[in-house]
User: Fold Homoserine dehydrogenase from Floridaenema flaviceps BLCC-F50.
Amino acid sequence: MSFKIGLLGLGTVGTGTAEILLSPEGRHPLVQELEIYRVGVRDISKPRDVQISKEILTTDLEAIAKDPEVDIVVELLGGLEPARSLILKAIAHGKHVVTANKAVISRFAEEIYDAANEKGVYVMLEAAVGGGIPIIQPLKQTLGVNRIQAITGIVNGTTNYILTRMQNEGADFADVLADAQKLGYAEADPTADVEGFDAADKIAILASLAFGGRIKLEEVYHEGISKVGAADIAYAEKLGFVIKLLAVAKQMTVAPNQPEQLQVRVHPTLVPKQHPLASVSGVYNAIFVEGDPIGQVMFYGRGAGAGPTASAVVSDILNIASILKTVSQPPTPILHPLLACTHQHYCQIAPMDELVTRFYARFLTNDSPGVIGHLGTAFGNQGVSLESVVQTGFQGDLAEIVVVTHDVREGNFRQALAEIRSLEAVDSIASLLRVL
Ligand SMILES: NC(=O)C1=CN([C@@H]2O[C@H](COP(=O)(O)OP(=O)(O)OC[C@H]3O[C@@H](n4cnc5c(N)ncnc54)[C@H](OP(=O)(O)O)[C@@H]3O)[C@@H](O)[C@H]2O)C=CC1
Ligand SMILES: N[C@@H](CC=O)C(=O)O
Ligand code: NA
Assistant:
């Protein structure tokens, strides 16, 4: 028996996927039964890094999604369209789908999973979060009995690669981004990586799986790394932190009888050097899950790149193939409850003002006596207590003051900042970061 794969896309991840499928030796025996039947690309004449016969290449992607011979459509195009429409078309034609496309899933999960459930087909997405790291299936299956309290992740390889090289080598942002693009880590439009959109897509997916409800992507707060400067990386280091782009989904503490609320957010964060996430470097991702009764568990591995991502893609194909082998008349309308998606309601997301966290802020001020006192008074007026205040040096004529707060409600902290901005001695707030 063989399972026919319709591959949409033969770029970084598509090529990695084809390489695995074409070299089954030493892998699970079922890989031998997976056949690359058709491959859809934009440009047939483009040289390819993998041996795919020209006869199976096509630019007619819709024909693959509709082909009665195809069992599993593997969408590795990226972008929203035509990826979304092709996924829906494949489902409508009774195909199972494997995708690495977090942008499509985080926006159109409802439409896609409703269609898939109706048709009795699977839509699998292990590659969409954390690349090769198993995190989707563990949340659905192995950790399924836990009450998840929080997920804190480094889920974007490009930005972690950039921040790591800026920290270790003092490298320039633009040069490192160009390297991440060459290595195949970055999205087609790297703004998605740099400005935190990609991480927001991923944490929305993880939050949905962990907390059992749908997430509206527009309610996920996100900030990228483009404003993180060398000065902040250096001060963070001196204070005992590293700066990471964290994606967080966390259950809020609410009063009894109040509806459950989640925080779902992405932002650069000062991570204490002793925290397990602080040592996650380069393209590596890690997802730190806290739940009851499991406690703390961390998933770590390569979050981007051809091979690792393809490992997740092919494992999804294998999962589907193994189910198809055990049913006589695929597709079966009864879906495996631990592989299908059954969410019906939307999670309630708390506004950022309600977040309680520590902050790091860097101020540029006149070098006049009493400035630190004025800052302290403005913070005190809003009940913000300070863990440390240091005058770190000068930028031209301006003094540079770095403050780290104790835990504070974000709304109060922002009110204090509004008061500080109006102080005559304060030139500007050069940066503002949250602290884990
Ligand atoms: N790169 C990575 O490390 C990771 C990527 N992902 C996700 O995997 C997916 C694929 O990413 P990646 O492999 O990097 O992307 P690439 O840009 O390297 O490859 C995209 C492929 O899709 C084809 N394609 C794109 N649009 C069309 C279209 N309109 N019609 C026909 N063919 C099209 C391209 O054809 P052609 O070759 O002819 O140009 C190319 O083969 C994305 O959703 C991405 O977010 C997930 C995890 C990690
Ligand atoms: N551009 C993404 C690719 C994987 O999802 C990243 O850098 O993590
Ligand atoms: Na994964």
User: Anything to note?
Assistant: The pocket of LTNE7NMQ (ligand 2) is lined by residues 131, 156-158, 185-187, 193, 198, 303-304 (CB under 6 Å). Residues 306-326 form the longest helix (21 residues).
